[in-house]
Design goal:
The complex is a heterodimer of chains A (273) and B (513). Chain A has 273 residues and is mainly α. Chain A is 72% helix and 0% strand. Chain A has 10 helices and no strands. Chain B has 513 residues and is α/β, with parallel strands linked by helices. Chain B is built from 19 helices and 20 strands. Classes of the chains: A mainly alpha (273), B alpha/beta (513).
Chain lengths: 273, 513
């Protein structure tokens, strides 16, 4: 019953995400060629039966590279979102939490820190971090996590404050429950439910951000297949061989749209309940 | 008082209001008339169709409603529901005093503009003369220092003052017909008297008043005729003195019985409950369960500081009920939060069974907590979202330290003690009725066998017959268990019916009444 409320669009989006997840988990079963197998004689082949997405400047099969690229892109998207969620929850919980003498200054500090993070554009923050740490998958994950954390923190902070002032928390305090128990059973579950729905949207956002960093050459070093880096590599041949940029771009677009549609469908379901 | 004039101000004939998709009509074949200088009262429970009837008179029915029957204002038939012709009538010939003053006044506009609206919209008084009329209307409605209220906004006024501003805004254009929908429900006795006095004065001057109320005492004082409504129908009507002294319909009898005004302490309100005389009640031993000593609290610091409680001292002894009366904003909630240990006072001590709560460790303080229970004003808000009654009770028993194996058994015992049937326990608490939710909240508070229950407006949201059942239940539980109650309410009748001692909270301190 709850499933049917996902709607047709939600199910299609879920299908896209599932397909891309398969690509990320078992690329060898879906890709017709190894991603790094070069074939100098077959370079710049347009899409055909043998190479549905064509081949690139080194004769590598674009379809296989897109399939293999899902692993990096999705891993970065999911791990970075989880990281951002974790950091945001911690920060937001402190900022929304107790006003007592001991926690008051901490709460104030967390609040200001969230605002400071908010005041930098996410991409700028990510660029700064990568320029300090040097490019690489780990850097991209951390950078994306940090740039998405303040949004989650702001939501968690509001939810925590609302819950702490609610009658259900008061009732738990009155019956002598410990603070830890109140957070575990009431404050965090109620606060995180809408945030987790939002995180579904966030995965798409994180994938796009990671691809943007890859495009700038700050992500996975070549020749590993990564969608953003593929876009960049195909850029000089945009007029000659459109398929070099079109298919990785399509993959990024699919993830972005699928995550957004799925997130919205979950959000609707959440509001119906 | 009954003035019979040939032409009534409003005549309603066979009014029936239905909603698509609902089988029974919300208002069923209701007829009555209001003449100049006459007050007609509609009484009944929520859902009986009182408010819909009143709204139909002013063309304010919800757009999904369908109505049949004739409504005439004076000699003319009333315009269709929602017709623009109403704008010439509302505020000028007929005015509404709504129940919810906070929702009815625009928080962004000054009182002067809000109250003067009818004069402006109907172009009755030139702008230069409006202020004077607004001041006069506010004074008539019993507003103290009306000149000083002109520049304030509704959220800066207390509940009582807000309701008076609303009455002033309805009466300023001297309408012939006044429709007052529970105008005094949120007010305490003093404010209620003043508002009703002003409405009565208008009636003496020739206006017609349709008063909707569940407060039978006010109706008896003010109304010339009363219509008792149930499930959309008028079940009984006539002179209020006759109707209330010799009610013909069983529902009227129940309504009268349920009203706590004038019923002595210890007596049951509804005949279905077993009645016990006051002599059977355990004599309260003068052993203090809860003592508040010199409590001081306030908000803000320095010159912005607003004191809430000033050296408040109060005690509740074993087995007794202390009633605490106070307006909204008088610090009732803060007092309860201090007693529960949820709010640390700036000065003063909280003693539970003679032990100072502030001087104990956190763990001990939490253990002491178990001896006090709270029944909140809004029980639904106090249940976790989506929780069933069963899970609420099981959680309360867990917190009370009951072994897991015994919890289901104890939960059903608690439920039967408050008359909640087992099938209700498995439903989402949000689907329970107001009375059932309150029973669940009481059962939850009883889970840890407290010696003292703090009751925060436990019946303010309930209909009078449901309220009577809850009050009877509280009485019975007290007899059986000897629990002490601290009952906080703005309803004088409820408090005097329930309490051994009545205290009034005013200006941050309590005085005996």
């Amino acid at each position: 019953m709850a499933r049917s409320r996902l709607g047709v669009d939600g199910w299609i989006a879920l299908g896209c995400v599932a397909l891309l997840a398969c690509c990320a988990i078992v690329p060898g079963m879906l890709a017709p060629f190894p991603p790094l197998a070069i074939d100098p004689t077959g370079a710049f082949a347009p899409p055909s039966m043998a190479h549905p997405f064509g081949t690139d400047d080194s004769g590598r099969d674009v379809l296989s590279r897109v399939v293999y690229g899902a692993r990096d892109s999705l891993t970065i998207g999911v791990v970075a979102t989880l990281g951002g969620l974790l950091a945001g929850t911690l920060l937001g919980s402190v900022a929304g939490g107790s006003r007592t003498r001991a926690f008051g200054p901490l709460r104030y500090a967390a609040d200001r820190f969230i605002e400071a993070l908010f005041s930098f554009p996410g991409l700028l923050l990510a660029l700064l971090l990568i320029s300090v740490r040097g490019p690489g998958v780990a850097s991209v994950v951390i950078a994306v996590a940090i740039s998405t954390a303040p949004g989650y923190a702001r939501m968690v902070r509001g939810g925590v404050r609302q819950m702490l002032g609610s009658g259900s928390v008061e009732a738990a305090q009155v019956q002598g429950d410990s603070t830890a128990r109140i957070w575990r059973t009431l404050v965090l579950p109620e606060t995180l439910r809408p945030v987790l729905v939002l995180a579904t949207l966030g995965v798409g956002h994180a994938v796009i951000l990671a691809a943007a960093l890859g495009f700038l050459g700050l992500g996975t070093p070549p020749p590993a297949p990564e969608w953003g880096a593929m876009l960049n590599a195909g850029r000089p041949y945009l007029t000659k061989a459109w398929w070099l940029t079109f298919f990785p771009g399509l993959a990024i677009l699919t993830v972005g749209i699928a995550c957004t549609v799925l997130g919205r469908a979950l959000e609707r379901r959440e509001q119906w309940q | 008082m009954a003035v019979t004039s040939t032409i009534p101000l409003v005549r309603v004939e066979a009014l029936t209001v239905t909603f698509p998709g609902r089988e029974l009509p919300a208002v069923d074949n209701v007829s009555f008339a209001v003449h100049p200088g006459e007050c007609v009262a509609l009484v009944g429970e929520s859902g009986s169709g009182k408010s819909l009837t009143a709204r139909a008179l002013l063309g304010l029915l919800p757009s999904s409603a369908r109505h049949r029957g004739a409504i005439s204002l004076g000699e003319d038939p009333a315009p269709a529901n929602g017709s623009p012709a109403w704008t010439a009538i509302r505020g000028r010939r007929a005015a509404l005093v709504p129940q919810d003053a906070l929702g009815a006044l625009d928080p962004l506009r000054r009182i002067e503009l809000e109250v003067g609206d009818a004069l402006r919209l109907h172009r009755l008084v030139p702008p230069s003369g409006r202020r004077e009329r607004v001041v006069q209307a506010l004074a008539d409605a019993g507003m103290p220092t009306p000149e000083q209220q002109l520049r304030r906004r509704s959220d800066e006024l207390s509940g009582g003052l807000r309701q008076r501003a609303l009455v002033a805004s309805a009466l300023i254009a001297e309408p012939e017909l006044i429709v007052a929908d529970e105008p005094t429900t949120a007010l305490d006795a003093g404010h209620r008297r003043r508002i009703l006095g002003e409405l009565r004065r208008r009636v003496r001057e020739g206006a017609g008043l349709l008063l909707i109320s569940h407060d039978l005492a006010s109706v008896r004082d003010v109304a010339d005729r009363v219509l008792v409504m149930r499930n959309g129908r008028v079940v009984e009507h006539g002179d209020p003195r006759t109707v209330f002294s010799t009610p013909a319909h069983p529902f009227t009898r129940e309504l009268i019985a349920a009203s706590p005004g004038g019923k002595p302490r210890g007596s049951r309100l509804l005949s279905t409950s077993t009645s016990t005389s006051a002599a059977h009640r355990a004599q309260p031993a003068p052993k203090p369960r809860l003592e508040l000593r010199g409590i001081v609290t306030g908000f803000g610091t320095g010159s912005l500081r607003t004191p809430v409680l000033r050296h408040l001292t109060l005690e509740v002894n074993a087995g007794e009920t202390v009633g605490l009366l106070g307006e909204s904003g008088s610090g009732k909630t803060t007092l309860l939060r201090v007693a529960l240990g949820l709010h640390r006072p700036e000065a003063g001590r909280v003693l539970i069974d003679g032990v100072d709560r502030g001087a104990t460790s956190r763990a001990d303080s939490r253990r002491m907590q178990r001896r006090i229970g709270l029944v909140p004003q809004d029980p639904l808000d106090s249940f976790p979202r989506g929780a069933s009654g069963q899970s609420v009770l099981l959680d309360a028993l867990r917190a009370a330290g009951v072994a897991r194996a015994q919890r289901p058994h104890r939960a059903s015992a608690l439920a039967s003690e408050v008359d909640l049937s087992p099938e209700l326990l498995h439903r989402d608490a949000a689907t329970l009725s107001g009375g059932q939710r309150q029973r669940l909240a009481i059962a939850r508070a009883l889970a840890r066998e407290p010696e003292l229950l703090l009751l925060d407006e436990p019946v303010s949201a309930l209909d009078v017959t449901v309220q009577a059942r809850v009050l009877d239940l509280l009485d019975e539980l007290q007899e059986r268990r000897g629990t002490a109650y601290l009952l906080v309410s703005h309803d004088t009748d409820v408090v005097s019916h329930m309490s051994d001692r009545v205290l009034r909270l005013e200006k941050g301190t309590v005085s005996e009444r």
